[in-house]
Write a structure and sequence with these properties.
With 271 residues, this protein is α/β, with parallel strands linked by helices. Helices cover 50% and strands 13% of the residues. It contains twelve helices and nine strands. Strands 5-4-3-2-1-9-8-7-6 form a nine-stranded parallel β-sheet. The longest helix is centred in the last third of the chain and has 18 residues. About 3% of the residues have low confidence.
């Protein structure tokens, strides 16, 4: 049986903590601008300094994603991206870099593909786990059973609106890390990352020893440094995707995301 890379994910996050910094977690959608282009983009953010990468499984009806990621997802879907391409992206990026790679996906595509099949194939590809923003914890037993069998992390999302009892339920069911949404709303770059995020991390930490990584809104080194003061990981997605969308060609886009990853990697150092 192939086992995934949950242990590698945990070790990577612990190593960042031991270096007195937050981990840099980069998000990029599979299939954008093409399947091969996305694989190159993952390699570029890792070359720039990303510790962990989330690969988005493009979805036609995203509930968490803002306009930038929706645009990229639409391009990927029109290009015909399939789950097989997502798994290939994980496999090739992991084989080239050895960095833990998760898939971020809504539940419906996995449900249709088959939970056992998806977890087995993600583990075989070297994946570290899944972030499942719309899967309620109380309906997650089947997923968690198969994820645990294949050594995959199950990362749930908590939000500022989550009550303390709910936080405890969510974090008890999760593994790898907890994804703390810094604000109510969808993904996208923001002028600032609100104080709600720091309070959410504090509340989440009272319920779990899992690392808490903050996403939604971080787009530059100043914001990364701000979040790194209180979070175990800083998640950046839309800022990378926007650089690829705005680039005149793929090589320019790859250089831009590599450079941003380098700036953010400096930003997450607390000293």
């Amino acid at each position: 049986m192939s086992t995934g890379n949950l242990e590698l994910l945990s070790t990577t996050l612990a190593k960042a903590k031991s270096e007195d910094r937050a981990a840099l977690v980069a998000y990029l959608p599979a299939g954008f601008p093409t399947v091969d282009g996305a694989i190159d983009a993952v390699k570029a953010v890792i070359a720039g300094g990303a510790d962990v990468v989330e690969i988005g499984l493009p979805h036609s009806d995203p509930v968490l994603d803002g306009a930038i990621i929706q645009t990229a997802d639409d391009i990927a879907l029109r290009g015909g991206v399939k789950i097989a391409d997502v798994l290939r992206t994980v496999r090739e990026a992991f084989e080239a870099t050895g960095v833990p790679i998760l898939v971020m996906t809504y539940w419906n595509p996995i449900d249709r593909y088959g939970v056992e099949r998806f977890t087995a194939e993600l583990a075989a590809a070297g994946g570290a786990g899944c972030i499942l923003p719309d899967l309620p914890v109380q309906e997650s037993a089947l997923w968690r059973e198969h994820a645990a069998k294949h050594g995959l992390a199950t990362v749930f999302v908590v939000a500022p609106s989550s009550q303390d009892a709910r936080l405890a339920t969510i974090t008890a069911a999760g593994s790898g890390f907890v994804y703390a949404a810094s604000l109510m709303g969808v993904t996208g770059t923001r002028e600032s990352v609100g104080n709600e995020a720091e309070e959410l991390v504090r509340r989440t930490r009272t319920t779990t020893d899992l690392p808490v990584c903050v996403g939604l809104g971080v787009s530059n080194a100043v914001q990364a440094k701000q979040v790194a003061r209180f979070a175990d990981g800083v998640i950046v997605g839309s800022a990378f995707v926007k650089l690829l969308l705005d680039a005149p060609d793929l090589p320019a886009g790859l250089e831009a995301v590599r450079a941003l990853a380098g700036e953010l990697a400096e930003g997450v150092r607390r000293s």
